[in-house]
Specification:
By secondary structure, the protein is α/β, with parallel strands linked by helices. It has one domain: TIM Barrel (Alpha-Beta Barrel), CATH 3.20.20.370. Strands 3-2-1-7-6 form a five-stranded parallel β-sheet. Strands 4-5 form a two-stranded parallel ribbon. Strand 6, helix 5 and strand 7 form a beta-alpha-beta unit. Helix 5 runs parallel beside helix 6. The longest helix has 18 residues. It is globular and about 45 Å long.
């Protein structure tokens, strides 16, 4: 399986990125820091509340960052609880049918105490440690590959898929914006389409993080 995930949910990810996935009858996972919704965030404008709700209505997974995009390593247990609950309340206010099941560490940085805490609140927590999830998988530090133009090329995408097929594993990509001239943390539509086509050529199933976990019985 492969999952396409987008952190912070720039407007371009919620519109162009999601639409491209839908062309392949696929859905992605969008990790929301609700405190940033609708705001300019240095490199992009974050999707609006209506755009986040639309993702859910179209079958994409709406999942959690921290509310303020604070790093997990900077939060104690009480502060992390506040961040999680503020995010959860915001998302459920958008649509009470949203199931807030999965988390991604802002900036990919976690700590053992916060990892233990998150494991009691979410089905999974995704980092940015590269690699394919196979064999014994740490659900609260899921590996993920950058789908970011400055960090990966087509050859490396193909190698990641080939490893996924060989191992019978679960490949997760992460990105941010989807723009012709992307930010240093985003991907171009051409790179996203190449990865989607690479999955199709190998008959690798595309699933949101929540769906992939369900299929795996996790």
């Amino acid at each position: 399986m492969v999952s396409f995930t987008f952190d912070d949910v720039p407007k371009s990810a919620a519109t162009l990125g999601a639409s491209m996935l839908e062309e392949y009858d696929a859905r992605g996972t969008f990790y929301v820091a609700s405190g940033l919704v609708g705001q300019w965030s240095e490199h992009w404008t974050v999707a609006s509340a209506e755009e986040i709700a639309s993702l859910h209505r179209r079958g994409h997974e709406v999942a959690c960052h921290t509310f303020s995009h604070a790093r997990a390593i900077d939060l104690d247990a009480a502060a992390m609880t506040v961040e999680m609950e503020k995010n959860r309340r915001y998302l459920l206010a958008l649509d009470p049918s949203i199931r807030v099941e999965n988390f991604a560490y802002p900036y990919g940085q976690g700590s053992l105490p916060r990892k233990r805490q998150l494991s009691k609140a979410f089905r999974s927590s995704r980092g940015i440690l590269p690699g394919v999830n196979s064999g014994t998988v740490d659900l609260h530090y899921l590996r993920a590959m950058p789908l970011i133009d400055r960090d990966i090329d087509r050859e490396r995408i193909d190698r990641a898929f080939d490893e996924t097929v060989t191992k019978g594993g679960w490949l997760i990509f992460y990105s941010h914006d989807v723009e012709t001239a992307p930010s240093p943390y985003g991907c171009s539509p051409a790179l996203l389409r190449y990865a989607l086509d690479a999955a199709a050529r190998r008959n690798v199933s595309i699933a949101s993080v929540a769906e992939a976990l369900r299929r795996a019985g996790a």
